[in-house]
Specification:
Structural class: mainly beta
CATH class: Mainly Beta
Largest sheet: 5 strands, antiparallel
CATH architecture: Roll
Oligomer: single chain
Helix content: under 10%
Distance between the termini: 12 Å
Radius of gyration: 11 Å
Strand order of the largest sheet: 4-3-2-1-5
Number of domains: 1
Shape: globular
Order of helices and strands: EEEEE
Length: 65
């Protein structure tokens, strides 16, 4: 399955500098021509806590739009 804009994803890697751990869920907010994706991670109140540019090997799509 090819990741698309607004898909929900789950991290497969850690990003301690952003306080993100394996299993954290986010949403794809941009897809780039080089095959990377900008993913936004939010807290339980909906506040954005991190934006990360990731390759598709770093996350798993858990819900498609």
């Amino acid at each position: 399955m090819v990741p698309e804009l607004f898909d929900a994803v789950e991290l497969l890697v850690r990003f301690p500098e952003s306080n993100l751990h394996i299993g954290v869920r986010g949403a794809i907010v941009d897809c780039y021509s080089d095959g990377t994706y900008e993913v936004e991670f939010s807290d339980r109140y909906g506040e954005a806590i991190a934006l990360c540019v990731l390759s598709s090997e770093q996350f798993l799509v858990v819900w498609q739009t």
